[in-house]
Amino acid sequence: MTQALYLTGALAAEVEVVACNPCEDGRFAVRLSATPFHPQGGGQPSDTGKIAEVDVVHVAIEQGEIIHYCTQPVELGVAFAQVDEAGRRYHSRLHSAGHLLGHVMHLFGWQAVKAQHWPHDARVQFIALDTAQQLDAQMLEQHCLQYIQANLPANLQQHADGFREIGFGEFSAFPCGGTHVATLGDIGFIEIQSYQIKKGKLSVSYSVAKEAE
Question: Which residue intervals define the domain Threonyl/alanyl tRNA synthetase SAD in the entry (predicted)?
Answer without folding.
Answer: 168-195
